[in-house]
Design brief:
Number of helices: 8
Number of domains: 1
Number of strands: 12
Shape: globular
Radius of gyration: 19 Å
Mean pLDDT: 88
Largest sheet: 7 strands, mixed
Oligomer: single chain
CATH topology: Sulfite Oxidase, Chain A, domain 2
Length: 323
């Protein structure tokens, strides 16, 4: 259950950007402005640079924790979370952390296109500089019926939508991950519809809970968790939280996501957590807590975030909202 605090628009004193962080950002902006003269390809697309850059945003972590988002359960350890990961680009098993280190996260560009005022192609570090990072404690529930709780760092997706300036008729956001089979050998499996794509409605994308994750545990995102940019939607099953995003496309047509194409009878567009609706192959009323020695707990409707998101779906008729 999410505890209630002051409204999100009431700035806490602790949420103000410290002077040291502000100065670090000014220094980063200055460094990035001279990067082209130093031969650093900050605006080259993924996989096109000759050298791998370090992450210049490390100094922005840990970000201030937003006290509005708390949990009634203990956080998982960082080891729990970083050694048990789904990332099909690098393999179909859970222990892909070592293989995922092949991912090159600098340089990295993000494209905002489709039904927008103007297509934007922006370097990941410049994008992060435009946003206010914060830490939030969220539940995470996998469709495979295991769960965890962790401290994400990121920024509201609503801020990204505002930055993109979508046209009035845009109803959905399609997100797309990188595509480089030479690095991610899982992408050589031709029976999957690579690259990985996911989608949200504009209303879901701008909901207060929807976060664009850039880090966890007070550090930049590790590669096996979807560095440098991933989606975090805690009321949905984990396969909706697309990793390593390179493109956000605004459209008036509902997209067909990666797992819908693979097995639409089991994995649908909405994928909201509901303990009363079983998966085709297993029940969803309980979940195994990662690192809990096999302990199982009851699953909550919308993963415990019913108050924040139920209104998004009240007027939808004839839709399978939970897969």
């Amino acid at each position: 259950m999410l505890l209630r605090f002051k409204s999100s628009w009431e700035l806490q004193e602790s949420a103000a950007t410290p002077e040291s962080v502000f100065m670090d950002r000014r220094r980063l902006v200055k460094a990035m402005s001279i990067a082209p003269f130093l031969g650093i390809g900050t605006t080259l697309p993924y996989g096109k640079a000759n050298a791998v850059m370090a992450d210049p945003t490390k100094r922005f972590y840990p970000a201030n924790r937003n006290p509005r988002y708390r949990l009634d359960r203990s956080l998982n350890t960082e080891k729990d979370v970083t050694t048990h990961n789904n990332f099909y680009e690098f393999g179909s098993h859970k222990f892909i952390a070592k293989e995922a280190q092949k991912l090159r996260t600098r340089p990295w560009t993000v494209t905002l296109d489709g039904m927008v005022e103007k297509t934007i192609v922006i370097d990941i570090d410049k994008l992060i500089l435009k946003m206010q990072l914060e830490e939030r404690l969220y539940r995470f529930r996998c469709v495979e019926a295991w769960s965890m709780a962790l401290p994400w760092t990121g920024f509201p997706m609503a801020d990204l939508v505002k930055f993109a300036s979508p046209l009035k008729g845009a109803k959905y956001v399609i997100m797309e991950t990188f595509h480089d089979p030479d690095v991610a050998k899982g992408q050589k499996q031709f029976w999957y519809p690579w690259p990985y794509r996911e989608g949200l409605t504009i209303e879901e994308a701008t909901n207060e809970l929807t976060l664009i994750g850039t880090g966890a545990y007070g550090k930049p995102m590790v590669k096996q968790m979807g560095a440098p940019l991933r989606l975090v939607v805690p009321w949905k099953y984990g396969f909706k939280s697309i990793k390593s995003i390179v493109r956000f496309t605004f459209t008036d047509q509902r997209p067909v996501s990666f797992w819908e194409k693979v097995q639409g009878q089991e994995y649908g567009f909405w994928a909201n957590v509901n303990p009363a609706v079983p998966h085709a192959r297993w029940p969803q009323d309980t979940e195994r807590v990662l690192g809990g020695g096999g302990r199982r707990v009851k699953t909550l409707l919308y993963n415990g975030y019913e108050e924040q998101v139920a209104q998004l779906y009240r007027n939808l008729k004839g839709e399978n909202l939970f897969f």
